[in-house]
Amino acid sequence: MAALYEELIVDIPDYPTEGVVFKDITPVIANPEAFAQVIDGIATHFANLGITKVVGAEARGFIVGAPVAYQLGAGFVPARKHGKLPRETFRADYELEYGHDALEIHQDALCAKDRVLIVDDLIATGGTVRALVKLVEDTGAELAGLGFFLELGFLSPRAKLAEVTNAEVFSLVNVEG
Question: Which CATH class is domain 49-175?
Fold first, then answer.
């Protein structure tokens, strides 16, 4: 199946800024077979961990995270850009490959009894995911794992994540170059 994924992922050079090669996964999610295998692959990997909530970052993390939550019988918690949520929030600032941003979740979205899976479409430098880890920690919930469709392994995101969590990191596709 990795060959199908590789055929469907489109590289967009110099987007959103010069020097960045954007990995466009929209053809993968537009393909019913490929999209189902992405969701099933991540959900199956974490199926026996007692996940109660899945956290996904705006916006592509919603696309992958919500159906994974459904497959796991868990709730979905959207991590939104700053100022998009109407109630009291926890906020985490982070650096991107090409700038900085912030994510927020409602303060009551998770509790200490929750076992959380963070899901996103892609992990590159780890900045967004490190922010999600902080948000989960701020609630007192337990981080049980991190699941991704695509990992840009050549950017060493696992080493950066190991600085903030010892939770398992799982990716369906790892790009090394």
Answer: alpha beta
